[in-house]
Design goal:
Chain lengths: 257, 167
Amino acid sequence: MATAICIQNSALFMYVLGRADDALILGHRLSEWCGHAPMMEEDMALANMGLDLIGQARELYTYAAEVEGAGNDEDKFAYLRDVQHYRNVLLVERPNGDFAQTMMRQFFYSAFADCYWRAMMSSTDPTLAAIAAKSEKESAYHLRHSSEWIIRLGDGTDESHRRAQSALNDLWPFTGELFQANPEDDALFAGRIAVDPRGLLQPWTENVTAILRSARLTLPQSQWMQKGGRSGQHSEHLGHLLSELQSLQRTYPNATW
Amino acid sequence: MVITPAQARDLREVAWNAAAQVVDPEIPALTIADLGVLRDVVVTDQGVEVAITPTYSGCPAMNMIALEIELALEREGFRNPVIRTVLSPAWTTDWMSEQGRQKLKEYGIAPPVAGGGRRALFGEQEVACPQCGSANTEVLSEFGSTSCKALWRCKSCREPFDYFKCH
């Protein structure tokens, strides 16, 4: 095992890798809550959602390795890539912040994952369709859980409302990247291998704004959106996250259980 | 070694029976055959290959199950069995056998509602208490001790119980 691996370029491989990175990084963020959540049920919920996402990431990495055919595997992708080789959206690497920040991030991502995986179930690629069939049910469950929290926090006390509104203001600029498509993906969309995320913006916006309205939260005025994660330009937060996620393999290369 | 089709059939039956008895380490009342996780067993000149399918994406029991199958087959004399994971078609709780559902209930876990799909996932179903059978139950926590379970409570007998979520 080398100390770092580079990634080769192929549209399907890069596409699958990006989705795997989204799931791994958000799953890792959720795992940081383990033992710290405000109550026992929520501690289990956050850890369970993290486990689902890491499971989805493993299946996607394994498939990416098969597509790439360069002898890499799920562990090498997770532990031996440097920051600039990660392709996740910036939203999922945002720090946990307070509970409202974590739930808002989860709500935005799950609302996307719910419609994304449902659409991917009809992918002409049987492996992606099968991964989608599982992920769709898990994402729907995460969406329900996070939606209920957004309503409870937004429509709760003055303090919970203030924190939920502040989380919304902070994270909204990171939602646009979920719907960004790369020009290299056009062939995947044309072959119905992958779903064009631009087509999901409208249903996502409708679902999200309905919940935010019930939560008495107000959308920020500015529609300016952050981007960069899909092309490997990350915030400093991802480096800190990876230093923890990869510390064992980086300190003791090739260590196994 | 070259084996005849008849020998392959016999060996397959032995291999299937050995693999089918492996239990889920998190719910030892259920075998992988009850769960619908055991998909196929193929015996060729090269050896035996077992196909299994994962349940929940993140279920950590899958690695353990693969290892247990390997051990069970080696005990029956199969050398270097190969365990393959197949994703398609995706597992659903509808694949759980009737016998499996009964065993779950006796173990104290409410079985998933058959054919429930998305509506069942979103709580639009009645879950009967596995202890007293009452339908007067409520959800306590949507997430439970493993990824496949939620925590419920019976309002008739007042006992908490696990519910195997629809997937």
